[in-house]
Write a structure and sequence with these properties.
With 116 residues, this protein is mainly beta. Helix content is 9%, strand content 47%. The strands form 2 sheets. Strands 1-9-8-7-10 form a 5-stranded mixed beta sheet, covered by helices on one side. The chain has a 5-stranded antiparallel beta sheet with strand order 2-3-4-5-6. The longest helix has 11 residues.
Length: 116
């Protein structure tokens, strides 16, 4: 599955939301992607077009213009039947906040790969 977005929006630690880490975007076709995790939770919640799923064991790769989210084959229903979601983005060059957010979301429950 593929999405294209102008920008990834990230919040590494929202103190108004019990320190939840959030990454989201809206595609150029109006599709919403949201990934969240509270620090005391063992799983990540992914919402794709209002369909939430709770997962663990994610692998996420962040590059200058690409975010790749890979799930186990048994969790493909979370991504509309695909085992990966590739998001092409035009986020400004400083992706430090996105990177910090992904690290917080995956800490202890997934794999983060940086291509920056």
């Amino acid at each position: 599955m593929q999405l294209t977005t102008a920008q990834l929006m990230a919040t590494p630690c929202d103190d108004e939301e019990d320190n939840m880490a959030t990454l989201c975007c809206i595609s150029d076709k109006g599709e919403m992607f949201l990934m969240t995790r509270y620090p005391d939770e063992d799983e990540v919640e992914i919402t794709l077009d209002d369909e939430p799923s709770t997962l663990d064991g994610l692998k996420i790769t962040l590059g200058p213009q690409r975010l790749l989210i890979e799930v186990a084959p048994g969790d493909a229903d979370a991504l509309g039947g695909d085992d990966h979601l590739e998001i092409t983005h035009s986020t400004p060059r400083d992706l430090a906040e996105v990177e910090e957010t992904l690290q917080n979301i995956l800490k202890g429950t997934g794999t983060y790969v940086s291509e920056l």
